[in-house]
Structure formats: C-alpha cells, structure tokens
C-alpha cells in the first residue's frame, strides 16, 4: 500500500464524506505509521511524505481551513520528520513538491480497489456523496482528473443546450388565439 491507494481512498471516500459532513474543524491523528521507511513489522506501507503533504492540502479545503494535526506516533524518525515537514509546509501554504508523474499515473492495487468498493457500498447508505465516485475508484489520479473534467464539460454542454432551447422558445412568435365575438 502506497500513494496510489491512499490517494484513491482520499479521493473517493475521505474527501467526499468530509465535504458532505462540513465540519467546523478537522482533527487529524497524524501517526505516520504508513510513511515510507517504516519496516514491515511497524507498518510496512509506502506512503510518501509528498503524499501526506498533498492530503493535508486537500483537507485544508474542509472546515474553512480549520485543521489540526496532532503528531501521535510513528517509529522511524526520518519518516516521521519528512512526513511532518510536508504536512507543516502544506499548513503554512508553502508550495508543495508535486507528486511524481508515475504516482499520478499509477492505479491503486486490486486489493485496495476491492476494499474501497466495500467501504463505498456501506458508506453510501449514509453519505450520498460517495456514490458519485464509486465508478472511479480504480482510476489513477490523472484518470480521475480527466473524468472530472469530462463530467464538467458534459454538464456545461447540456446546460448550454438547455439555455439555447429556452432562448429559441422565447424568440418564437406566439400564436394568437381567435377572439370570440
């Protein structure tokens, strides 16, 4: 488990629910056990510091930016320091190092997709926002972004057609009804 899996979970479950819930403040228990650098018995995940920074930046769009990160654990000092630095940089509004192109193109693992589909199935009973993202759970970040752009373009085109049809309808002369005498 690494960046592609965490980014998929964040995009399809965490952020939609957070935005729908619309909290006043977001509290994050930042243990960084998933940070790349922890040996397998202590986590073994491969989430990069850049990814932690990216997720922090995304969370800043919730609750008007009222976001608290509480460092609560971790085992590898270098991994904790790197992840903490990326998160603090995000909180300070500093420009973040972009995620590598290969990460943006990588799809989440099959096991992660199956797990996320199960989570979405359960959570969609309570949070309607996750339904919208269910079809894209197996997408890479770039595929999901393209899908979102295409969706917006489709909605915009349909709205434009609707406005044009209404305008045409308003411009057509109205038939006069014969007056009874």
TrEMBL record:
Which GO CC terms are listed, alphabetically?
A: histone deacetylase complex
Q: Name any one Pfam family assigned in the record.
A: Hist_deacetyl
- Where exactly are the transmembrane stretches of this chain? none
Question: What is any one GO biological process for this UniProt entry?
Answer: epigenetic regulation of gene expression
SUPFAM superfamilies assigned: Arginase/deacetylase
Q: Which residues form the Histone deacetylase domain?
A: 1-91
Q: Which GO molecular function annotations are given, in alphabetical order?
A: histone deacetylase activity
Name of the protein described by the UniProt record: Histone deacetylase domain-containing protein
Organism phylogeny: Eukaryota, Metazoa, Chordata, Craniata, Vertebrata
């Amino acid at each position: 488990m690494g960046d592609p899996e965490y980014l998929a979970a964040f995009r399809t479950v965490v952020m939609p629910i957070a935005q729908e819930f619309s909290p006043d403040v977001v509290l994050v228990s930042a243990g960084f056990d998933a940070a790349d650098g922890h040996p397998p018995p202590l986590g073994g995940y491969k989430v990069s510091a850049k990814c932690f920074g990216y997720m922090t930046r995304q969370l800043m769009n919730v609750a008007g930016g009222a976001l608290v990160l509480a460092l609560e654990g971790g085992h590898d000092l270098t991994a904790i320091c790197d992840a903490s630095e990326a998160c603090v940089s995000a909180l300070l509004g500093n420009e973040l190092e972009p995620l590598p192109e290969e990460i943006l193109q990588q799809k989440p693992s099959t096991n992660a997709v199956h797990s996320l589909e199960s989570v979405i199935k359960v959570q969609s009973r309570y949070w309607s926002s996750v339904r919208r993202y269910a079809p894209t759970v197996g997408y890479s970040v770039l595929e999901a972004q393209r899908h979102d752009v295409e969706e917006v373009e489709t909605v915009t085109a349909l709205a434009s057609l609707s406005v044009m049809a209404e305008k045409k309808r308003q411009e057509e002369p109205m038939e006069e009804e014969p007056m009874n005498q």
